Amino acid sequence: WSLRYGAILTAGVAAINGIVINSIFRRKLKLRLNGLKFSIIFLSSGSAILEYICHETYITEQIVLFHHKCLPCLELKAIAMQQASSLLYTLIATPTINLAIAGTIGYRIPHIFELKEVWKLFWSVIRPEGRTLLVLFLCNMFVAGIVTYSEYTSMRK
């Protein structure tokens, strides 16, 4: 099951990360339904597609072709790619998209070149949600590690 559905599972977790982080920013900026479809589709599908391609290309392909002998190295690589494509990508793209939507509908937001003000806004949204981000981080780590281990052991049988 893991070789067939493993990358899809990791992509699904990345999509959930995109939806959760997007809802955090939208709630803080009070955007309600303005640009909701665009932001959810872009963030969830973008992170899911990125994770699917990364996992298939750099993890599953190496397992199937027997290029990797070190399972912990491969698991760490999978976890790092999962974190980068689901959390890091979403944490960079979400404020950008939602601030653009807020600026379009007329909310007062800091200009993009006022880095100090943009950073204060970003930090004011992220800091209270530290536990949520920690749970997302741990779920990503768990899923990427288990899927990679399962793929590796199914090929070694």
Automatic annotation (TrEMBL):
Protein name as it appears in the record: Uncharacterized protein
Record InterPro entries: TMEM126-like
Domain of life according to the entry: Eukaryota
Transmembrane segments: 6-25, 87-110, 130-149
Keyword annotations: Membrane, Transmembrane, Transmembrane helix
Lineage, uppermost ranks: Eukaryota, Metazoa, Ecdysozoa, Arthropoda, Hexapoda
Pfam families in the cross-refs: TMEM126_like
Source species of the chain: Heterotrigona itama
